Amino acid sequence: MRSLPLLLALAAAPAWSQDRHPCGIDAASVRHDTFDPDLRLPAGAVPAGTRVRLRLQVAQGDLSAARVRLWDARRGQERFVDMVWDGEHDQSDVLDWWRADVDTGPAPTVLHYLFELTDVEAGCPTTRRWYVDEDPRFTGGGAGVVVDQAETRSFQITAHAPGFTTPAWLQEAVIYQIFPDRFRDGDPGNDRPADSFHYGGGTIRRSLGEAWNTEVCDPAGRGGPPCPGHGSSDFFGGDLDGITARIEDASSSGWG
User: Fold this and answer.
1) What angle do CA 91, 132, 29 make, to 5 degrees?
2) CATH code for the domain in which residue 98 is found
């Protein structure tokens, strides 16, 4: 490990930065992973007021500066935290580690974050890239990807109320999440008829017929019977009566 002083971010490249990837940023070497304790600690949801250490792994000498862009969902505020070269953590001859300590603030919130990377080298145009969440469908977790334009695909930190504990009745409980419209039609009398108007525009339709167990169609055409153009107008009629009836059926059969 090189015994160099810790330098402040925006003037922050290590002294041996002349060896860095020429005229650009080596995207394949950039890495952050919300599940890796070397790259984020602590992981997962944290009490409000916690300082979360974020690390970024890059090719050795590849960056002149880096910072974390944060969006506080509760306050509707953007802020930036400069990263510094993490010499104490750097044990590699081919990689650098950068770090930033993020204060979640005193109140519960969700912080969305991504990384802004900058490379300044004599004889080369300034390079700026962003490291964002690879797949935000999984609530901002896991690894990311380098992109050429700023965007909002973000990792996230959930900061919950300090002192919160899971109620005893909920611990080790089994929880079912259901989609009422597709679960059970307990009262056919309240079903909206096909071709009636709905608030999203267009008309209501019943998916491929009236039979309850008819296969659900797929507006995107990626699987199942296709029904293009019906992503928000395809209803089955499931309701609270259907849920209540199923609970009663389960109770009488001795389970649930």
Assistant:
1) 35
2) 2.60.40.10
In the structure encoding, which two tokens stand for residue 190, read together?
A: 């309240």
Contact by Cβ (8 Å): 59, 173: no
CA-CA distance, 171 to 239, in Å (whole number)?
28
The answer to whether residue 227 sits within a structural domain is no
Q: Calculate the average pLDDT of the chain.
A: 81
- The answer to whether 184 and 199 are in contact (CB under 8 A) is no
Q: Which of 61, 50, 48, 49 is nearest to 4 (CA)?
A: 61
**Plot region of 199 (φ>0 → left; ψ -120 to 50 → alpha; else → beta):** alpha
C-alpha atoms less than 13 angstroms from C-alpha of 93 in its C-beta half-sphere: 0
* CA separation for the pair 28, 244 (Å, rounded): 53
Q: Into how many domains does the chain fold?
A: 1
- CA dist 208 and 188 (Å) reads 17
- Of residues 94 and 40, more confidently modeled: 40
Furthest C-alpha separation in the chain: 79
What spatial distance separates the first Cα and last Cα of the chain, rounded to whole Å? 58
pTM of the model: 0.64
At residue 46, the pLDDT reads: 95
Helix spans in the chain (H): 180-183, 240-253
Q: Whole domain around residue 76: which residue ranges?
A: 9-160
Cα dist. 161→46, 106, 205 in Å? Answer: 9, 9, 43
